[in-house]
Amino acid sequence: MTPNTRLLLYALGAVVALIVLIARFKLHPFIALITVSFVLGIVAGMPVGAVVKAFQDGVGTVLGFIAIVVALGTMLGKMMAESGAAARIATTLIARFGETRVHWAIMFVGFIVGIPVFFQVGFVLLIPLVFTIARRSGLSLVKIGIPLVAGLSVVHGMMPPHPAAMLAVVAYQADVGRTIAYAILVGLPTAALAGPIFASWIAPRITLPAENPVAAQFTGAADGATAPSFGISIFTVLLPVILMLLASSADVALDAASPVRTVFDFIGGPIVALLVALLFSFWSLGYRQHFSRDQVLKFANDCLAPTATILLVIGAGGGFNRVLIESGVGKAIADVALGSQASPLLLAWTVAALIRVATGSATVAMTTSAGIVAPIAAATPGTHAELLVLATGAGSLVLSHVNDAGFWLIKEFFNMTVQQTLKTWTVAETIIGVAGLGFTLLLSLVVGCAPPEPQFGAQGWVDVTATLDPARTPVYRGDAPMKFDFLHDMRKGDKFTLSVYSMGAHSGTHIDAPMHFIANGASIDQVPLTPLVGSARIIDIPDSVQAIDAAELNRHDWKGATRVLFRTRSTLRGWMDSAFHTDFAYIAPDAAQLLADGGVVLVGVDYISAEQFGAPAPRTHQILLGRGIPIVEGLDLRAVQAGDYDLIVLPLKVRGHEGAPARAIVRKTR
Fold it and tell me: Is residue 516 among the annotated active site residues?
C-alpha cells in the first residue's frame, strides 16, 4: 500500500468515526472533533506535539475571524429583532413576493449581499430575516434557509473579489471582469437549483425541533406601527455591505498609496464594517426606537450565550481541518488527481473537489488546486482561463461535511442533527459543485476556448523570471525604486528608441552573492556557474505557512537535491506582480542550516527576500552566503509545479557588487 493510499484511508476512517461518534453514540461534536483529530494525526505519523499544535493553530485561525464576526453579527441581528426591523423587512418581502415565492427572494438577496462579503458575514447578517420570515409565514426554516446559504456559497466560491477566487484569477492569469460576468451567468442557475428548487423538495422531509435557542434571540417584541421603517431597516443591515463595496471600489480606482484608499480599506474590512453597522444600529434601531442604554446592553448580553457552543464546535472543526492538511492528506489527494488525463476544466474541478472533501476548506481547495492546475492548463491549447476559475470554484464547494466549519455553523444555527445537516447543507453544496461544473462546461461551448499565451519556450523551457515593471514589481521597503524612461522614442518622432533604467541590484528576480552579508565574500561576478546551472527541485509550501523552518522543511522531500527552490504563498497570491507585502514566506535560520549541511549549492525563493521581514539579524543570509551558497530571490513560479527540473539562472555580470538582476529558466526533468 502506498503512503498516499494509506493517508486517504486514514482520512476516510476519521470522517466515518466522527459521524458514528456524534450520530450513534451521541458524543458532543466538540469532544468528538478533538478526539478524532488527535488520533488521525498520530496514526498518520505526525509527532504528538505537532498534532496538538496543528489543532490549536486550526482553532485559532478559524475563531480569530469567525468568533468576532458571529458575535458582532448576532448582536446586530438581536437589535434588528428587538426593534422590529427584521419583522419589517420580512413582512415587506412577503408582501412584495408572496409567501409562495419568498424563498426565491431570499436566494437573490443572499447572492447580491454575498458578492462583497465573506460567507460567514453574509450568513450572520441575513439569518435574522430567515428566522423571522419562517416564523411569520409558517414556512419551514429549511425552505427559507437553504436558498440563503446557496446564494451566499455560490458567490463565495466562484466570484471575485472573494480571496480564493481572486487567487485563482491570478494563478490562471484570467481577466477579472470576464470572470465576474461568467460567474453571474453560471452562478444564478446554480444557486437556483441548490437553493429554492432543492429546498422546496427537501423541506417536507426534514422535521426540526420546535424550540431553537438561536432563533429565539431573533424574535423581538416590536411590531406594527412601532417598528422602524423599511428604509432605515434595510439600510442598517446593508451598511456593512455598502462599506465593503466602497473598499473594493477604492482598491480598483485609487492608487495603493492613497490615504483615501487606506481609510476605505480600514472601514471596509469585514470586522470593522460589522462594528460600524452595530454601532449605527444602537442609534437607528435603539435610541430612535426609545430603547434605554440598559435595554441595549441586555440585548447584547442575552444574544451571546447561545453562540458559545456554536463557536466551540466551529473552532474544533477548524482544528480537524488543519490536522488533515498538516498530515499530508491534501497533497495525497492532489497527487492522485494529477495521475488522470482529464481536460484542464475537469482536472481543476476534480483536484479542488478532492482537496475540499479531504480538508474541508473551500479556500484551501481552490488556492491549492489552482496552483497545481495552472501550469498544466498553460501548456494545454484551448484552455479558457476564466472558465478554469469557475470550475475550480465549483469543485471547492462540493460535499461539505464534518471537517468543514461551515457545516457546523449551519447545523447549530438551524438546530439540526448531523444527519439532517448532511441531507440539507451537504447535498445543497454538492448540487452547487456539480451544477456549477455543468453550467461552466455549457458556457465553454458558447464563449469558445481562446488559448492563453504559451508559457513554454523552446524545447520545454519555462521562463520563471519576474517581469520588471515599475508600476507592478514589488520593491523591498527601503530599496532603490525602479525608474524606466526613454531618452529617445520613435513613437514620439525620434529616429530611434533608447531606454534608460534605474533600479537596485535586488530588483525583481535577482541573485544575492556572498558579498551581500559576508565580509570579503565573493562578489556577483565571482560567483561560479556551477551552482547556477544544473538540476533543481521545486518544493510546494502550503499557503498557510509563513516560516519555512526545519520542521516544515523536513515535511518535504528535499534531501539529495542539489538546488532547492521554494514555491510559497507568494506564488499562489501573485505577489511578484503586486505591491510589496511584508508577510511573505521566508526561510528560517534552522532550515537554512539544514540546507547548507545537506549539500545544497543554491537556494531560491519566490519573493524578493529569503529573510523574514524585520528580522533582528540576517541569519538566513549569513548561514547560506557564509557557506558560499548563492540565493536567487524573486522567482515567478506560477507557470510550474513542484518537481525536479533543469535550471539555468544567470545574473548580470557586474564587477565588485553584491547582487544583480538575473534571468531564470527551468525545464521539467524527463
Answer: yes
